[in-house]
Design goal:
138 residues, alpha+beta, globular
Length: 138
């Protein structure tokens, strides 16, 4: 399913919805969808989609990604803020892993990660673990 499908059914705030729509249109970070040069837009979109799927009732205000990408992976930490709370998720999207799980091989006998990424999209997460958020002293 596409990100807009999950966004429409989410408890996200209007400002977050607008920011996600702007991100989908431009592929660029903004005030409520934060990431840096290590995060290609296509992989950010997959991570946002997974977050919207996993937390449909959270009144999301922003998501920040501290992650890096390689050919077959995208991994790091996502911080979700909304409704006065903050959640952190350690994640790893990995299309090679997903292809291996499916037993898919390409012409050369390698895991068919291209097929996995195309067919499963945001559903190639081999890791999605919520971590405790430490309270700040002060």
């Amino acid at each position: 399913m596409k990100i807009i499908h999950f966004l429409e059914r989410s408890g996200a705030t209007d400002s977050f919805r607008e920011s996600v729509t702007a991100f989908v249109r431009t592929g660029r970070a903004n005030e409520h969808v934060v990431f840096d040069y290590r995060s290609p837009a296509v992989k950010v979109e997959r991570a946002l989609t997974k977050a919207l799927e996993e937390y449909p009732d959270l009144p999301l205000e922003s998501i920040e990604l501290d992650a890096s990408s390689g050919c077959e992976f995208y991994r790091g930490v996502m911080t979700l803020r909304g409704g006065g709370e903050e959640r952190r998720v350690r994640f790893q999207w990995d299309c090679k892993w997903r292809a291996e799980q499916e037993g898919w091989r390409d012409y050369f006998g390698f895991a068919d990660q291209t097929r996995a990424a195309r067919e499963f999209g945001h559903d190639c997460f081999m890791r999605w673990e919520e971590e405790p958020v430490l309270e700040r002293a002060g």
